[in-house]
Design brief:
Number of strands: 4
Largest sheet: 2 strands, antiparallel
Strand content: 35-45%
Distance between the termini: 30 Å
Number of domains: 1
Shape: elongated
Radius of gyration: 15 Å
Order of helices and strands: HEEEEH
Number of helices: 2
Oligomer: single chain
Helix content: 10-25%
């Protein structure tokens, strides 16, 4: 699998990971490690943050979307 972002820019890099949100293949240069908060609770409420975070690999587009929300 090739890195989607490198392909967009005319490059040719092998993917080493996949964005956990959209499934885009990513090389080491374009993979973003983001520690996301874990939530718990019943549907639809109450929901509360747990005291820990979970490491996830994201593309730049999904990382930007999660940071803006």
């Amino acid at each position: 699998m090739k890195c989607y972002i490198c392909e967009e820019m005319g490059g040719d890099s092998e993917a080493v990971s996949i964005c956990i949100v959209c499934g885009m293949g990513l090389c080491r240069r374009h993979a973003i490690r983001n520690d996301l908060e874990i939530w718990e609770g019943g549907y639809p409420f109450p929901a509360k943050k747990k005291g820990m975070k979970l490491a996830r690999i994201l593309c730049k587009y999904c990382d930007a979307a999660l940071r803006s929300s």
